[in-house]
Structure formats: C-alpha cells, structure tokens
Amino acid sequence: MATFRSLRHSAPEPALTHPCLQIRNAGDAHKVLEAVRRNMLPLIRQRLGASERSQLSSGNVFVWEECEGTEEGGLVRWTDGRRWSESRLRGDFLFYQEKVELSSEERYAKAARRGGKASGSPTPHSAFPKRKNRPAKEGGLTKQTYSVSVRLPGAGNRTQKWHLVAYFSPTEMERLPTPDNDERLRDVRVPAGVFLTDGAWLPAEERPLAPRPSPVQVTEKFSLGVGQMPAMNPVRIAPRTPFQPYQPPAPEQHHHTQSVVSRVALPPISSLVYPHAQLDANTGFAYASQPTRATALTAEDRRILSRLPVAL
C-alpha cells in the first residue's frame, strides 16, 4: 500500500504552490497549508531553478517542507537568488524588502572575505554598504514568510516543519485575490490540532548564536480584595560568616606624655548584688527576689581594691 509520502514523490515536482494569491493573515495561511495537506495544492520539495527564480512575480506563493539534511526530500533552507533586507516582524509574519543586487566589485570583495575567514587570515575592511544599509531595489518585491508544524495523515504524533513564502509588490498587493476569492480555497475548513503554529520563524543565517535578553522593567498594579494576601518574596538567607576570634586592641603608645586616669566614683560593692530570678507558681513568670546583701570584704579584697584608681 502506497504511503502518503510515497504518493507525493510519485508526482512530478511543481514550480510553485499557488500562482497568484494575497495572504492577509494567519487564517489565510492556514487555508493554503490545509489545501496542501489535502493534496489540493502542491508541496515544494526542490530548490528553485535559475529560470524559476527569474520568473518570480507578485502573488506567487510557495509551501515547502523543511528537513534536517539527512531525510529524503525537503529543503534545508529556502533560496531564491535575490538580495533581501533583514527580517521585520509584523503580527505572525516576517517580511523582507528586496535590495539592489551586488556589483561585480562587491561579489569579488565578498569572495575574498569568505576566503580569508576560511584560511584564518585577516581580511581588509570593506567599503561597500552592509545589508541593512543597502538601498531598496526600485520596483522590487516584498517577501512574506510563515511557519508551522503540521501533523500528516498516517504519521501518528510525528510532525513536519512547513513554511509558507509569499511574494508581492506593495503597489499591487490590494489587487491580488484572497483565499476567499479562490474556488479551491474558499470552502476549505482547517481542523483543530493539525497545525502547531510557530508564527514568525527566523532562518538559520539570522538566528542569534546565543540568547540576548534585554532588561525589562515591569510595574505591577493590583488591589487587594477581602481575604487576599499580597505575594511574598522568598526569604534570602545570607551565608554564615566564618568565626573571627576577638583581638584586643593594642595599647596606645604615648611619647613624652603621661596619661591621666580620671577617678570615677562607684557605689559600694556591698550594694551590687545579683537578683536571683524566681518562678511565680500562679503566673509562671520569673521575677526578681529581694536583693541580699553581700558578705564583708576580706583583707585580700581590700588590698586589691586599694590598688584601683577609684574612690570608694
């Protein structure tokens, strides 16, 4: 029994998916993709030839299948032989503006730069404008791209990457027919769960090597209702610092001066007693008992106290 994929390979490869169509939104794109999934419109699996590239015109629509380079059929990337600006995201689509072609001098300089990078030798600075500074081509086209992951019949849960590429002239876009005006597309209904929308998809040459997050300031405004609690930030515990032994300060050195210690009057030692805490049986709280008087000073105590510069 022939499979869905083998039936596709048995047919001759077409040049394009639709000759003249305007893709206004994601709904139009899904109609075209569903028509391709039902074999109502052809799927592109080969690169465009030189004659097909030269015949690109406003309204041409292509749906091509992406592969990883090891599978049969499909394309690794889409090439049309034209110069385009950097991508601009508008809604669910990426748009590219056609730029002027490279001159013979620019092609030579570009080849020299590539050769220098391959050999590791430094390349001279190019005086030619970069892609973002290259002027737009007069009467040039605009390229519109959209990408999805599609579930094919008989493939189970496995999905395949499909891309839609549409070309149009800004001056002729409003005059192009829409899927609602096409006899094959106007009654197409897209079932739920068939297309997993990826939205705007960057080609490999435009994907950043690493994510470059930009700081975003977000201000949250909210009001608390009855019974609501504000969100609490998690508590951050600072790491314990290592124990540092106490170092007494070094004595100050006084030169040619004599330190004078002021004499401080202190209360009698006999009055300095430590209140012994007792537990109240009724309340359970500790309270201080009546102070008890200290015992009389011994001769050794008086000898030590006599050496202190205080007045008793």
TrEMBL record:
Domain of life: Eukaryota
Record Pfam families: Gti1_Pac2
InterPro entries xref list: Gti1/Pac2
GO MF term (any one): DNA binding
Region feature (Disordered): 112-142
Name this protein carries in UniProt: cAMP-independent regulatory protein pac2
Organism: Mycena chlorophos
